[in-house]
Write a sequence for this structure.
């Protein structure tokens, strides 16, 4: 799956927050790259990778794109329990040499990897487009993020000098220090919505700190994982340091339950994350689970807000990637005095968002990921329709015949009462609940009264209201007055992406300065000198 020629460096980079940038040259380039990618990558037969070798031990499965339910992405192997065991064994065998290499050498290899990821970013982006149904811009943002993510973690390792800290001395002839050391083999389990960024981010955190890795991607996103494995090989990462086993829940269970796993990095649902946490720590001693487990992510719009800016930011965070982001804004609290005006601004902005085939440059919303998501959306809409609370949207989108195999929905706003399930439960859908308030403090208290605590946003031009939001909100990533996204858009080294309460386990976030130490354990060393 070797990539083709990298385009000119003057093509714009894409982040999740760069609105107003002319992406025409980039879209022109993708118009030529898309058919080439489809011919070269889609529909192939792909194996797992264990100790640097292809592995076919398991059951073959085929993946189709959610765009139309027909386009074949490829044939893959759901690894057997024995294959998972061999992958863990290969990672264990590679661990000592990888650790002994030293952090400087590992950083050099990972910086080489980052450059190769950048060179392959259009393959990564287009794989995500077809696997997930991402718009071009969402997919390009993910592909650009991975370069900055790996580079940032390398920078952090260098900034902390390998996490070696001299300590005080009691005697002049002793040397004392604290050093953070790797644990061993990390199982890395990633979800469907960011098939490259989350797999790469968790793996990079484990690798730069000296651990080895067994990757288990979301079953339908193994194509992205195969491209990632190719980039690791091209960067010169030694065989066995990273291994790939594809498959569904059985493969994941075999990995998590393997006694050779020293820790697990996971992104996904609260239920699965807590199950992994309990399972991994049911043994004779605790093992780290680094988990990000979703959110509810309220936004607050006060009477002192710029309503046009608020509408744009809320819509982008609520409906971008069809609401299938752990940081998606799925409930908005609006001061009752501006409720009608805000709703009209939101309706008008949402009406400009194009629904359709993500291969097209103008598309903002593609399909929801699968039939299960479509069923959840249908159930939620039926319940809302019975209450007469749908303010706009509320039905399947009208799409051409060639997309009928996908699941396309209109972005929907639903007015609900306090305590409604749509204000409490993560939906992962293009569905936004609206609540009104008379006191911001009460709205924030209601927004806090949920299982989750990942992200939250506010729109206000009043300093006192902003201070109230910043000090009272129970979430790890806070945003104020962002037109690019009310609750979404975290970027490596810019926003730490940390989950409070049921949104996380360690209370420290990826993309930020406290991420890497979670992959290590502390050792104190005292050496007496002559």
């Amino acid at each position: 799956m070797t990539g083709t020629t990298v385009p000119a460096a003057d093509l714009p980079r894409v982040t999740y927050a760069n609105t107003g940038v002319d992406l025409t040259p980039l879209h022109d380039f993708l118009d030529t790259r898309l058919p080439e990618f489809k011919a070269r990558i889609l529909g192939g037969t792909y194996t797992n990778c264990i100790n640097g070798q292809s592995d076919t031990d398991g059951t073959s499965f085929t993946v189709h794109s959610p765009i139309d339910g027909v386009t074949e992405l490829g044939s893959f192997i759901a690894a057997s329990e024995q294959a998972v065991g061999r992958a863990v064994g290969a990672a264990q065998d590679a661990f000592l040499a990888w650790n002994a290499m030293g952090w400087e050498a590992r950083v050099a290899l990972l910086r080489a990897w980052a450059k190769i990821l950048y060179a392959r970013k259009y393959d990564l982006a287009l794989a995500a487009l077809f696997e997930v149904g991402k718009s071009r811009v969402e997919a390009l943002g993910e592909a650009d993020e991975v370069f900055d993510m790996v580079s940032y973690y390398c920078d952090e390792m260098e900034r902390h000098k390998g996490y070696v800290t001299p300590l005080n001395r009691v005697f002049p002839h002793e040397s004392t220090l604290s050093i953070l050391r790797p644990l061993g083999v990390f199982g890395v389990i990633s979800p469907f919505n960011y098939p490259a960024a989350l797999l790469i981010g968790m793996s990079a955190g484990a690798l730069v700190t000296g651990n080895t890795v067994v990757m288990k991607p979301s079953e339908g996103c193994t194509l992205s994982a195969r491209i990632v494995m190719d980039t690791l090989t091209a960067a010169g990462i030694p065989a066995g340091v990273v291994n790939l086993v594809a498959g569904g829940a059985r493969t994941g269970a075999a990995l998590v339950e393997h006694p050779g796993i020293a820790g697990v990095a996971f992104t996904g649902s609260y239920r699965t994350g807590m199950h992994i946490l309990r399972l991994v720590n049911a043994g004779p001693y605790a093992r780290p689970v680094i988990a990000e487990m979703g959110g509810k992510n309220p936004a607050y719009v006060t009477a002192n807000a710029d309503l046009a800016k608020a509408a744009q930011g809320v819509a982008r965070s609520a409906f971008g990637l069809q609401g299938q982001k752990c940081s998606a804004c799925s409930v908005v609290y609006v001061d009752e005095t501006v409720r009608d005006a805000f709703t009209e601004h939101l309706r008008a902005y949402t009406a400009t968002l194009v629904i359709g085939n993500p291969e097209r440059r103008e598309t903002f919303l593609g399909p929801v990921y699968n039939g299960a998501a479509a069923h959840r959306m249908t159930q939620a809409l039926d319940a809302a329709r019975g209450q007469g609370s749908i303010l706009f949207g509320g039905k399947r989108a009208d799409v051409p015949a060639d997309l009928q195999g996908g699941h396309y929905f209109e972005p929907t706003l639903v007015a609900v009462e306090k305590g409604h399930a749509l204000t409490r439960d993560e939906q992962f859908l293009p569905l936004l609940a609206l609540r009104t308030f008379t006191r911001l403090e009460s709205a924030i208290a209601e927004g806090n009264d949920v299982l989750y605590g990942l992200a939250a946003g506010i729109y206000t031009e009043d300093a006192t209201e902003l201070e109230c939001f910043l000090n009272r909100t129970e979430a790890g990533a806070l945003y104020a007055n962002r037109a690019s996204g009310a609750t979404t858009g975290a970027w490596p080294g810019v926003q730490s992406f940390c989950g409070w309460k049921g949104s996380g386990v360690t209370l420290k976030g990826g993309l930020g300065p406290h991420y890497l130490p979670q992959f290590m354990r502390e050792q104190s060393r005292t050496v007496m000198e002559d």
